[in-house]
Amino acid sequence: MDTSxxxxxxxxxxxxxxxxxxxxxxxxxxxxxxxxxxxxxxxxGCLRVWFNNNGKECTTQxxxxxxxxxxxxxxxxxxxxxxxIESIEPCVxxxxxxxxxxxxxxxxxxxxxxxEETILKRLFxxxxxxxxxxxxxxxxxxxxxxxxxPEMILRIPQHYIASYLGxxxxxxxxxxxxx
Amino acid sequence: MDTSxxxxxxxxxxxxxxxxxxxxxxxxxxxxxxxxxxxxxxxxGCLRVWFNNNGKECTTQxxxxxxxxxxxxxxxxxxxxxxxIESIEPCVxxxxxxxxxxxxxxxxxxxxxxxEETILKRLFxxxxxxxxxxxxxxxxxxxxxxxxxPEMILRIPQHYIASYLGxxxxxxxxxxxxx
DNA sequence: GAGATTTATTAACAATTGTTATCGGCTGAC
DNA sequence: GTCAGCCGATAACAATTGTTAATAAATCTC
Lengths: 179, 179
What we know:
Chains A, B: Residues 1-122 form the Cyclic nucleotide-binding domain. Chains A, B: This is Cyclic nucleotide-binding domain-containing protein. The structure is a homodimer. By secondary structure, the first copy, chain A, is an alpha+beta fold. Chain A has a domain at 8-108: Jelly Rolls (Sandwich). Helix content of chain A is 49%, strand content 24%. Chain A has helices at residues 8-17, 72-77, 98-107, 109-135, 138-148, 150-155, 158-165, 169-178; strands spanning 19-23, 28-30, 38-44, 47-53, 56-63, 68-69, 84-87, 91-97. In chain A, the strands form two sheets. A four-stranded antiparallel sheet of chain A has the order 1-8-3-6. A four-stranded antiparallel sheet of chain A has the order 2-7-4-5. In chain A, helix 1 (8-17) packs antiparallel against helix 3 and helix 3 packs across helix 4. The A-B interface holds A 51, 53-54, 58, 60, 73, 76-77, 82, 116, 119-120, 122-124, 126-127, 129-131, 133-135, 166 and B 51, 53-54, 58, 60, 73, 76-77, 82, 116, 119-120, 122-124, 126-127, 129-131, 133-135, 166. The structure holds a DNA duplex.
């Protein structure tokens, strides 16, 4: 997370508020249907965001080192989140509670503004996810991923990639064979 | 649009700023790729939002009487919008410019707050659109629409419905025949 | 009202994906 | 080292959708 816009005092309180945890792979940090009370900053490892779709796991996003993950929508509405946040690899993660974030937000107009920007960014993320599903075939989406995020393909188990592309791992295997 | 939260002076300025226009069906109010400078309030008639996907029109939303339509994302970023806004029926529409909205927003904290809420709502709209595409087959999406918005099915030409469901009108015909 | 345009249905065929099942390879636990 | 479990590839079959084309019905234009 880029913290350059915070003033010193806020930044200090911000970093002090974090608690560091270590989790093995396949650990669920936030469960679908629960009200989100924490935000996560990934020091090392990677996470995926997914939801249960009639017994099938649907992965919507991956997050890596130095990325911040939370259900900002759930923060705002206080409603249960729609997604699970789960580790794919063993991770070192910094955790901050919503209560602490709220306190910082109250004392810092800059931080408040950043939160608004984050909401707008999330809107564009969903817009992009939505349009990608419509515009492109699973095959094209795979090739795009291969071109733009090859490290993702190498790092993340294939069945998660398939789940992210919205197809079965069988179908992804076929696409890979086709070239 | 619910205006109950505005104070009197703002509300007056707000309503005075509107200019009423009448347009026939198939009129494009905002063109994809243009920077949005206006917002529309539908008095009568209905609009659809769509984008060009390799020569095929993809409809993402429909709007009806008493609904406000604009590219709020484009407003915020100043970047070209991704969508066309087009009339399906002859419409009576109230138009307000972004410049006027900006002026009102500057003078009214309440209005500013409403805009933030609107952004959050848009986020949920995209979230819902995205999840619906993933979770449900076109057939299920059609039946859901039939159950929850039967008036939409009656009012809107079928090929637009098909475009909204993400299928061809041929496929929609087949689904309808299957029952 | 006649002709043109748009809209919806249906048919036939191709292509892609899902489903189910099998198999081999890899990894981790003990 | 061995066993169990997970992961990826492949095959065979079913189901759905897209594509193209033909046709009928509805609507619009003049």
